[in-house]
UniProtKB/TrEMBL annotation:
GO terms classed as biological process: proteolysis
Transmembrane segments: 7-26
Native source species: Raphanus sativus
Lineage: Eukaryota, Viridiplantae, Streptophyta, Embryophyta, Tracheophyta
Family per similarity comment: Belongs to the peptidase S10 family.
InterPro entries for the chain: AB_hydrolase_fold, Peptidase_S10
MF GO annotations: serine-type carboxypeptidase activity
Protein name per Swiss-Prot or TrEMBL: Serine carboxypeptidase-like 42 isoform X1
This protein's UniProt keywords: Membrane, Transmembrane, Transmembrane helix
Length: 253
């Protein structure tokens, strides 16, 4: 698969992870690449069989704002695989202190083409230096999600059921409101999903395009708290499958 993770680093919205798949049929995506963003060697990373890119996407040239991105290609035939855009969070799963240490290493920043302007302060996970105003955290993502879904692109939103920062009940409620707004019917009533003979969470689906899932036993950072369940969920998503409704699922990996 293609996978793009865009991490906004905003305080209030980091727990809701939105995953979007786009099929790039017959399009030679690789040719459009910013080759200067190719990550040649990431310090400490074992030898990998896929290509990875990192750099900045300009958002607002006037104010000089850009978003950092990290993009990973599928190991085989990436041009035939769906594109996943991962908003709010993503798969950084290591511990807070190790992460802070690693991403502040000059050779890591160089490899990732990050911090090109040599910022006068350290990288940290939640920074107050990006000029967010309190009110920015109130900006709704729903209109954006609505536009994506109206283009027939499947969207999955998931929450850890032990997330005490953004409890899943609120997210579940606004997703239901979004479904209502889109005039979607419930195509999958709220039910458990399974992984390795256990209930791995709950899931519901609207209009065959909008899915909300919880991951049992995960807190704010789902892939960190429940890596196997998170991976299984992601793998169902990229294969265009629903989460398993029983414990005997063919490739329950
Ligand atoms: C950016 O790089 C400079 C060194 O060139 C370093 O002192 C600073 O901590 C880095 N800042 C961030 C945000 O990565
Ligand atoms: C954000 O919205 C909530 C709920 O409507 C409100 O209580 C809060 O004051 C708002 N925060 C800001 C900074 O506007
Ligand atoms: C919503 O869907 C129903 C039936 O599925 C249809 O009758 C109705 O016209 C739709 N409303 C809007 C606003 O699209
Ligand atoms: C369980 O999932 C399978 C595969 O998606 C589906 O064929 C089956 O109808 C589902 N069973 C129930 C009870 O929902």
């Amino acid at each position: 698969m293609f996978q793009i993770m865009v991490s906004y680093g905003a305080l209030a919205v980091t727990m809701v992870v939105v995953v979007v798949t786009v099929q790039w049929l017959g399009c030679n995506f690789a040719e459009g690449y910013p080759e200067e963003d190719l990550v040649v060697r990431l310090p400490g990373q074992p030898k990998v069989l896929f290509r990875q890119y990192a750099g900045y996407v300009e958002v607002d040239t006037k104010t000089g704002r850009s978003l950092f991105y990290y993009f990973v290609e599928a190991a085989t035939q990436p041009e035939t695989k769906p594109l996943t855009l991962w908003l709010n969070g993503g798969v950084d799963v290591c511990m807070t202190y190790e992460r802070k240490f690693y991403f502040n290493l000059p050779e890591v920043q160089h490899a990732l083409h990050a911090n090109r302007t040599r910022l006068p302060y350290e990288w940290s996970m939640c920074t107050s230096r990006v000029n967010y105003r309190g009110i920015d955290s109130n900006i709704s993502m729903l209109p954006l999600l609505k536009r994506i879904i109206q283009n027939k692109t499947p969207v999955w939103i998931f929450s850890g059921d032990q997330d005490s920062i953004i409890p899943f009940l609120g997210t579940r409620t606004i997703i239901r409101e979004l479904a209502h707004d889109l005039n979607f019917s419930t195509t999958l009533p709220y039910r458990h999903w399974y992984h390795r003979d256990q209930v791995a969470g709950w899931v519901t689906e609207y209009g065959k395009l909008l899915t909300f899932a919880t991951v049992r036993g995960a807190a704010h950072m789902v892939p960190y708290g429940q890596p196997a369940r998170a991976l299984h969920m992601f793998s169902c998503f990229v294969r265009g499958r629903r989460l398993p409704n029983n414990t005997h699922y063919p490739d329950d990996g």
